[in-house]
Automatic annotation (TrEMBL), chain A:
Natural source organism: Streptomyces natalensis ATCC 27448
Gene: pdxT
Family, per entry: Belongs to the glutaminase PdxT/SNO family.
GO molecular function terms noted in the UniProt entry: glutaminase activity; pyridoxal 5'-phosphate synthase (glutamine hydrolysing) activity; transferase activity
Record protein name field: Pyridoxal 5'-phosphate synthase subunit PdxT
Pathway: Cofactor biosynthesis; pyridoxal 5'-phosphate biosynthesis
UniProtKB/TrEMBL annotation, chain B:
Signal peptide coordinates: none
Domain PdxS/SNZ N-terminal: 16-221
GO MF: pyridoxal 5'-phosphate synthase (glutamine hydrolysing) activity
Active site (UniProt): K90 (schiff-base intermediate with d-ribose 5-phosphate)
Gene designation per UniProt: pdxS
Name of this chain's protein: Pyridoxal 5'-phosphate synthase subunit PdxS
Binding positions (D-ribose 5-phosphate): D33, G162, G223, G244, S245
Subunit field text: Homohexamer and homododecamer. In the presence of PdxT, forms a dodecamer of heterodimers.
Length: 200, 303
């Protein structure tokens, strides 16, 4: 058996559940660190965009000069994984968003913000994800978005209620739900694998 | 698409995980008190992670006196319609019917708040009975754990709301963090005594001792008026900040709101805090907490 490499993966730390992602990535075999500045982004092999408030994240990315470096990171085909607000950030197009909301793009899809409803409709459900063996993952959906439509190059990994909730295009992965809030780190392990493969 | 696994619909709403998880998504952010849809939009534009819809900000509640109650549902509806970020609203302590109304309006979080006049001087609301999650204020660890035992999914310091003076929030946060640090060194024998002393359930006390933190998100609230205040609270261990009167009682609310958001993210970078603190105009005037009569101290409400 060959020794597995330990990739360095950043978590965008402008706002959101950063600590949970750092822990999940560490448990999944990566070296994880928060990223708030362009020079910190330059030092990581892959990036997680956490859950949080996507309008806040997008504004802070613009104000602190992170938007262009982040877009370049995606363009350079470095691996990126977005959960919930992070899924919104990697969408090429949005529905039900403020007109001035900037995204990084990366996945040819249209994402509807807060599509599953307000907090009273937030829910947990078991989700089968293609490429993740060992049974369904625990899906925690919080004011969650869904994927309204995808382009031909996008792989839909999971659906719920007829809507795509986990997708991948090339090196960009996105889920509507929050694996970082559960003890099950199989989705993070899949992402760590993507980062390893891309670094080789 | 045929190869994509399909999942049967079996959603479970109102679980502790989705309630507490909602607060996790607010971390590193600023939640702002607003009294109109226009203010809510200013807050959203400035980068607030959520707004707290209320009829009067605490500074005005202090000034006007009288009984402070839940806001008019029309006003809350107006704010929910105006913004896409989460909307919170306040119920009186122990007034579970106000909380039922807020839940029916679809607010995203209910603040069972000492800023309003308490409706029950013995019992807080049973927060497990709701789908909507609750945030509650605390001045110390025992109080925080009693609220969590009642179902609170998020804790904030009480501070002394409406004063523009951060001294009480600092006291409460230091108290909570200090008591958590003390638990870290306790063995099981000592934890039983600690639970008795804290007047909190043993299981929660043990969980805090193991985690080294509360099992829910901890924010600061009460008296934050400047970007440096917000950064101070974060450096003291708050995971995010509520700002009440400090924004809309200041000279230039939009600018101050955006500055506080930036300082909350870069709380450990004095250069950023200096930059965003320039030319903000008048801060709210503020009140010295020492001169507040006992009856006007909101932090003493709740137990």
């Amino acid at each position: 058996m060959t020794e597995l490499s330990t990739p360095t993966i950043g978590v965008l730390a402008l706002q959101g559940d950063v600590r949970e992602h750092l822990k999940a990535l560490t448990d999944a075999g990566a070296q994880a660190r928060p990223v708030r500045r362009p020079e910190e982004l330059a030092e990581v092999d892959g990036l997680v965009i956490p859950g949080g408030e996507s309008t806040t994240m997008s504004k802070l990315a613009v104000v602190f000069g992170m938007l262009e470096p982040l877009r370049a990171f995606v363009r350079d085909a470095k691996p990126v994984y977005g959960t919930c607000a992070g899924m919104i950030m990697v969408a090429d197009k949005l529905l039900d968003a403020r007109e001035d909301q900037e995204t990084l793009g990366g996945i040819d899809m249209i994402v509807r913000r807060n599509a599953f409803g307000r907090q009273n409709e937030s829910f947990e459900a078991a989700i089968e994800v293609a490429g993740i063996p060992g049974g369904p993952v625990e899906g925690v959906f919080i004011r969650a978005p869904w994927v309204e439509s995808v382009g031909a190059a996008v792989e839909v990994l999971a659906t719920y209620g007829g809507h795509a909730v986990a997708v991948r295009q090339g090196n960009v992965l996105a889920t509507s739900f929050h694996p970082e809030l559960t003890g099950d780190h199989r989705v993070h392990a899949l992402f760590v694998e993507m980062v390893r493969a891309s670094a080789e | 698409m045929s190869s994509t696994p399909t999942t049967p619909q079996n959603p479970e709403t109102g679980t502790a995980r989705v309630k507490r998880g909602m607060a996790e998504q607010l971390k590193g952010g600023v939640i702002m008190d607003v009294v109109t849809p226009e203010e809510a939009k200013i807050a959203e534009d400035a980068g607030a992670v959520a707004v707290m819809a209320l009829e009067r900000v605490p500074a005005d509640i202090r000034k006007d006196g009288g009984v402070a109650r839940m806001s008019d549902p029309d006003m809350i509806d107006g704010i929910i319609d105006a913004v896409s970020i989460p909307v919170m609203a306040k119920s009186r302590i122990g007034h579970f019917v106000e909380a039922q109304v807020l839940q029916s309006l679809g607010v995203d979080y209910i603040d069972e708040s000492e800023v309003l006049t308490p409706a029950d001087e013995v019992n807080h609301s049973d927060k497990w009975a709701f789908t909507t999650p609750f945030v509650c204020g605390a001045t110390n660890l025992g109080e925080a754990l009693r609220r969590i035992a009642e179902g609170a999914a998020m804790i904030r310091s009480k501070g002394e709301a409406g004063t523009g003076n951060v001294v009480e929030a600092v006291r409460h946060l230091r108290q909570i963090k200090g008591e958590i640090a003390k638990l870290r060194g306790c063995d099981n024998n000592e934890l039983y005594a600690a639970a008795k002393e804290l007047r909190a359930p043993f299981e929660l006390v043990k969980e805090v001792a193991e985690l080294g933190k509360l099992p829910v998100v901890l924010f600061s609230a009460g008296g934050v008026a400047t970007p440096a205040d917000a950064a101070l609270m974060r450096q003291l261990g708050a995971e995010g900040v509520f700002v009440g009167s400090g924004i809309f009682k200041s000279g230039d609310p939009a600018k101050r709101a955006a500055a506080i958001v930036k300082a909350t993210t870069f709380y450990d970078d004095p250069k950023v805090i200096a930059d965003v603190s320039r030319n903000l105009g008048e801060a709210m005037v503020g009140i010295n907490c020492d001169t507040l009569p006992e009856a006007e101290r909101y932090a003493n409400r709740g137990w």
